[in-house]
User: Fold this.
Amino acid sequence: MSQALDIFTVIAVVAGAFFFLAGTVGLLRFPDPLTRLHALTKADNLGLGLVVLGLLPQANGVLGGLKLVAVWLLAQLAGATVTQLVARAVRPEGPRA
Amino acid sequence: MTAGLALDAGLAVLVLAVAVWTIAARAAFAAVVGFVTYGLLLAIVWVRIAAVDVALTEAAIGGGVTGAVLIAAAARLRPTEARSAAERPGAALRIAAGVLSALVSAGLAVLVLYPPNPAPSLAPAAAVHLPALGVGNPVTAVLIAYRAIDTLLEKVVLLLALLGVWSLAPDRFWGGAPGQRRDARDGTLTLLARLLPPVGIVVGVYILWVGAVAPGGAFQGGAILAAMWILVMIAGLHDAPEISRHWVRFLLVVGPAVFLAVGLAGFVVADGFLSYPVRYAKPLIIAIEVVLTLSIAVILGLLVAGPPERERRP
Assistant:
């Protein structure tokens, strides 16, 4: 059972790392700020989400797991807010029709 | 072990690269962004060498509050930036700066490459007296008990820094509120400023409380509380207070004042200045930490808010 959980951890964390890598490549290669933000938010949401998901079975009890989930939720909140602010600074008139 | 070594090597390269980039960046704003990144990377370095207390402080102060102050400064300097960037210092000044930097680097390199053997350590001495103080975190014991005078003076320096910022105000604004009033628009930042502070305040108080037995304490907790206040001010949900308000002045000095009063009481009830009576050491330390946290939070918040820019309301 514990071996299955370890394998799950490895798969989920590697998948999360892949999203961070893809997000970073997108940040470096995409042509304009809005698409770069799009790449960055994937790294935050899915990358960190998968890393946290993978680490949950290794967490130190329920409280440790809740702390991990709280870190992910707070990073989501901060990431979403900053993305909105940057996007609004780039295009103050709002979404193009 | 090798994975840890690879991580450390990667971190070291990254920290050096960000440091060089920060110095080489021409635009002030870019340099500030580099400096904040550098602070956060340094915090990870401190975690790697198991100095979690320092890591928390570096992330909160070095990365967070200092970053906010520097961004505000960069925004203020923007109109004159092109002119000052065009100035080239004379050859003598550049050579002197280069020689001094090389000397400092060489001195540090000698210290790191040829450390005294065995390395001097006060850790055993710090651990011996922990039970008498009733605190489990040796860093807190050093800050509030063994080297209390340093901590006390540090807080006075913070107050002096705030006075320095305030003294930039023109006479007619003295006693007024810092910065311009920001309107609370129903936007993203407003939402964050409503959602985050309840969480942040709990975390800040927790960091303060846990500081007695684990990494944390007054400075880190105060910085988190200050960050929540700054967020509310930036979003325009609550205006910055006038600096002449009595409650502002009271909160600014209550921490250092209580610390000093307890220190002076040490002459009567204990062995001298800043020493605690053994039976009441722990409650006294907690009380000092609580009032220090309040003062630190208000000082840091007002440091970021800047000098008064509005006339005092009658």
Summary: Chain B has twelve helices and no strands.
